[in-house]
Amino acid sequence: MQPWKHMLRPQPKSAVLLAAILAGLLPGLGISTAIRAAIPAGIAPTSSATSGMTLAQAEVTIAQELMQLVNAERQRVNAPPLVLNEKLTAAAQSHSQNMATSRRMSHTGSDGSTMRSRIDATQYRWSTIGENVAMGQPTAAAVMSAWMSSPGHRQNILNPAFTELGIGQANGGGRLYWTQVFARPL
């Protein structure tokens, strides 16, 4: 084999090393658990966002992972990316916790609350809103797959009228309950 061909042939850890380097250079993109697990010890890049922390310590939250998945789907259809909103997240988390506590999935809370009343309770001023709920999916990727396979849920995720998102997730009886709250502010 000619020496230059050997240099071009991928080495076993090249892809993993590249992923580690990119994670350090582009921390806002996050890094999947599978990639993180494959990075050999000692290759834990840091950035200003994770200064002094190893990659394992800089876990991507479920909300961040779900947000990345939502925006990846929106990008495929040229819809603008959503941004995470604290008030919408409070409404989504409250509803996920309510569903987990009552152990039932519904758009209506056990207290009779509706999507609108939960959002209004946070003082978020909106012009349009939508909600996705799910139960039982063990990961952000699994719940996104379920939502994208459902026409109504898919429509909410890809709707270009929405600009902000809130995400909630809670465990009840060994099952995860998920909520996405979509909105556009006034």
Largest sheet, strands/sense/barrel: 4 strands, mixed
Radius of gyration in whole Å, from Cα?
20 Å
Structural class: alpha+beta
The total count of strands amounts to 4
Write the layout of secondary structure elements.
Elements: H1 3-8, H2 14-25, H3 33-38, H4 62-76, E1 83-84, H5 86-102, H6 115-120, E2 126-135, H7 140-148, H8 151-158, E3 164-172, E4 175-185
Parallel strand pairs: 1-3
Antiparallel strand pairs: 2-4, 3-4
Give short descriptive properties of this protein.
186 residues; alpha+beta; 8 helices; 4 strands; 42% helix; disordered N terminus
Report on this model:
There is one protein chain. By secondary structure, the chain is of the alpha+beta class. The protein has helices spanning 3-8, 14-25, 33-38, 62-76, 86-102, 115-120, 140-148, 151-158, and strands at 83-84, 126-135, 164-172, 175-185. It has a 4-stranded mixed sheet with strand order 1-3-4-2. The longest helix is centred in the middle third of the chain and has 17 residues, at 86-102. The protein is globular. The N and C termini lie far apart (65 Å). Residues 1-59 have low confidence and may be disordered.
Please sum up the structure shown.
The radius of gyration is 20 Å and the shape is globular.
